[in-house]
Amino acid sequence: MADMQVDVAIIGAGPAGVAAGIGAREAGAKDVLVLERDWDLGGILQQCIHPGFGLHTFKEELTGPEYMHRWVVRAREAGVTFLTNSMVFKLDEDGSLWVMNPERGVFKVTAKATVLAMGCRERPLGAINVPGSRPAGIFTAGTAQRFVNMEGYMPGHRTVVLGSGDIGLIMARRLVWEGARVEGVFELMPWAGGLRRNIAQCLNDYDIPFYLSHTVTRVHGKDRLEGVSVAEVDENRQVLDGTERFIGCDCLLLAVGLIPENELSRMAGVEIHPVTGGPVLNEFYQTSRPSIFAAGNVVIVYDLADWVSQEGVAAGRNAALYAAGALKEPLRRIDIRGGANVRLFSPQYVTAGEDVTVYFRVLRPIEKRCRVFADRGLFERKHRYVRPGEMNEIRLKAEALQALPRSVTTITIDAEEV
Amino acid sequence: MSDKTFDIVIVGAGIIGATLARELSAYALRVAVIDKASDIPSGASRANSAMIHAGYDDQPGTIKADFCPIGNRLYHELAGPLDFTLKECGSYVCGFDDDDRKHLEKLLQQGRANGVPGLEIVNGEALRRREPYASAEITHALWAPTGAIVNNFEAVLAFMDNAQQNGVELFLETTMEELLLSPDRGEVVGIATNRGRFFAPVVVNAAGVNSDLIARMAGDESFFIRPTRGEYYITDKHVGHLVKSFFFACPTPKGKGITVAPTAENNLLLGPTSTVQASRDDTSTTGPGLAEVIDGARRLVPSIPLNMAITAFSGVRANPDTKDFIVNVLDRPTGFVNAGGIKSPGFTSAPAIARHLVELMEDRFSRRISFIPDPAFVPERKHIPRFEQLPLEEKRRLAEADRRYAQIVCRCEMVTEGQVVEAIARGARTVAGVKIWTRAGAGRCQGGFCGPRVVEILARELGVPCEEITRHGGHSRYLVGKTKDYWFRGEK
Question: What phi, psi does B129 have (nearest 5°)?
Fold first, then answer.
């Protein structure tokens, strides 16, 4: 296979990557190539056959595949080129990509600008320190979702879900629909990891027990999983004596966190933020390598695909501008700082070149009237609550940023009770 | 189950069984190796530190002390021809005070007596110039340049694969149930298994943690195994740079203690604990055990982050009550060979033990079997291509020649479909088998991405439905059925 040269190369054809393709074409890039390692486009949304997508973008409720289908149609109409079964296995510092594809072999793509849109992966059992044996029947919720929704296989008959991330909640309901039993969802923290609406629609509506401040303390079974021990934990997440009990099950699903997938980014020397696990960005979605941009869950894990698509369009547009030598020069650098109740946020800094939305998650829930704000009067909005499972937005105007005295080099964002 | 006839049956396909099988395959002998597991290596050869010890730990005059440095040399010699990964990383035994310093001196003398080359004691500053993340509390360290790391999966497979290429037959999921003896019970005539009888005038007990049970079948009660659990963590490769060499603390009566080591693929390996247990096959991890691993590892390398573990596992060592390996030929029944109780440095010593066993058998069994060199013996073999490690141009060539090498299966370890198919062709039957051969699923996502793909390829290549594929043999089915089965079967 001959090597390729393009204006903008995009890694990943999930919601971020497909939208980035559109953004790049709309901003005038001629050759826009999206590389996808799976056999079909859509990324993880291929297996998200439940509704809940598109309320923001299309003002209607779609399933994951329907939502992505619309975006892919738009991208094809916009002239975006897609290559599936194409794994990018190496990313050079200048943004050149090395790709493997069973029809085309191994080849190199040289791009004037590159967009990282690799999404995230699930935290496995080994990463969360649950002792016991290692039998068959332990899956991350997303792997189980692929088996059930795409391959047509059942991961187990009796399931325990550890963690209350959205995929875990959705899979609990999905397994009940398939006739399996779900013994309960166990969450280490005193609050839910996923969206409130998923707790209601996936657990409460199906009488699936939901245990906060609980964890799995041991895995049992030699060949196939035979059960798990669960126990209550205190505020320091230490197991409370006497609360441990055994639950028989042949399947344990894990929904214990998503990790932005940045192996390629690291390879290219892109600076990774120690808390988000994603690239350090400015408001142009530009990483520490100027020709490399990033959008979506590879940066910070979002709640809604609609937001990811929106970010993708913007990242693609800026990548196209960069490829054409037309991206605005930074006017100044203002670092964003998280306040006392901020767990993580992105972008990490702004240059006052463009209006920007800062996305952030809180550390602790506030279940009463509260305000989400940036200091210096740059932004304030009242909320009825803030929760770790739900992302917050802070909108900053470029004009207001430009008007700040030159001595201002940081802005603090936070959420607090009113 | 038809009966089979061989010259030698080896019970156990761990590193001892594999190295011995390969030595024997150089002769015109019919050799069978049986193992009860679905994939090799299982048992202690699967779950250990993968350290090729230099040989300073063992008291001069023991079998261990004799075999360990020779085994170390043989691994260095054979890594090339047998194509398994060996990393010449060297090792440090770290001392924290004057008592430790004395102990290091003792190890130094012992090592020199055992013929270990290049040993020296360095001070803490010299250590930290080479290993900047080593603890500031370390005052002295014994440096052993010949200490090395192997990929222990690959090493066992390499010896056995080469043996099989030279005619040795491997029987998996085959459990020895009885030793067959002549009517006067004076001679070995074979073994009975769950898969029929294997007749042979020579039976070798290389059964690891079960070696005392097999010895009992021959009436040998000279040793007992005290199964000893060792728990480990493996970390993400992101922190693999924290050490270049293998780090030990000064040993205690319980063993060599918690170590910090690079793996052959640049993860960190932390562990093991050492806990005597009743069970010979319980490889669970425990809360206290894993906490001990972290504490012990951070004593050597304080900056090891907790959140970088990708998996934990445990192995059960064949810890004998004799303090030394049991490598002998029984006087009665004739034809029974012990290679049991091979705990640390057993993996290192294995190739030397294998050579010694062949000499022993030649000497003792010349009337039962003839050791005639096989002129067709091929002393080398190639592993499945390690796609991730190939230079770009070779990746290109391989993908050009076989396009299945351009189809990704495991993204973390960059394993292609070509490798998975080749692993199945060479004997992998389970998801764990594919992992052992190729590392698919051994990376940071632990099979989340490649699990469905590996199951699908196994089913396709073996011509069975996906539901029949197991994680690691036995009843470990990966999936429990098709969706909608409940409705089709009318169950609820």
Answer: -65, -35
